[in-house]
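#struct-pred
JK: can someone run the complex with tryptophan? inputs below
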Amino acid sequence: MAKTRILTGITTTGTPHLGNYVGAIRPAIEASQSADNLSFYFLANYHALIKCQDPEMVHRSTTEIAATWLALGLNTDNVVFYRQSDVPEITELSWMLTCMAAKGLMNRAHAYKAAVAANQEAGEDPDYGVTMGLYSYPVLMAADILMFNANKVPVGKDQIQHVEMARDIAARFNHHYGEHFTLPEAVVDDKVAVLQGLDGRKMSKSYGNTIPLFLTEKQLKKHINKIKTNLLEPGEPKDPDTSTVFQIWQAFASEEQTAEMRQAFLDGIAWGEAKKQLFELVNGELSEARERYNELMANPGFIEEKLQEGAEKARSFSAPLMTKCRKAVGLRPIG
Ligand code: TRP
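RT: done, structure tokens with the ligand placed:
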């Protein structure tokens, strides 16, 4: 039986944090270990250019994200792990799909609509600051997905619409030029935790409330100590279900440890003690990977080598499909 193709992209802006780890990286690495799946994970550095025009930041983030996935045990023998810009067929396909994508469909994209709404609120021109990159971003994402005939695309809720747009564009291409593309499906895993950040809102770099994944022990401790709590004293019962400390605990702990901590909350564990235990738990899970991460960051040539190998594997899928697409749309040699 053909393996299920799972594909996901990681935009290379920012430094990976605990929320990324729990919500995306850990489940992706787990899924890649199943023999039923063929996973494609890539560094979406063309997508990064939409949001970030600081070249050093894009480059540093690409390095950090690659090192993070490798340090956490991604096995590049079993997965196709690559950098988007190393696969030129993706941008080539993106243009063909642009010519199949209805403008009206793009008008409905959430990211674009949010930008327009913010402009209107500020009394600006509706398209102020909106680049064609932001506007057509769902088409590039469709190319990412369709290029590898992905069956399943694990994403957060905010990205479901884009996967649906990819289906729509694929169906139109197939209808017009013949069956070339698999219709992808978005997969949103409700069991995967969406982690809260230091202030209790969703952990996100746009809120500035994250705990970066590979801090030194001292910094990790410091960040955990900054998690917002209430003023309940030691001995006073605390509500685990509204506590960020408990929520992060749960994302790292076994069921048994979770039950014990729940009881400790009800018994009035001191915030300082709960945070100390949380540090021990998180640090325990990450300390080996942190060492590997630091080694990788000190040896960027090795990371580059892995990405080049990944690009070669990726292109063994993308190049033949692109040849077919070129023919299908009428771009072929004369005579
Ligand atoms: N747009 C996605 C995000 O911001 C990242 C991404 C780019 C992606 N291309 C993709 C995700 C293809 C899944 C499939 O999270």
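RT: quick notes.
The CA atoms of residues 117 and 243 lie 33 Å apart.
The first strand starts at residue 4 and ends at 11.
JK: thanks, will look after standup
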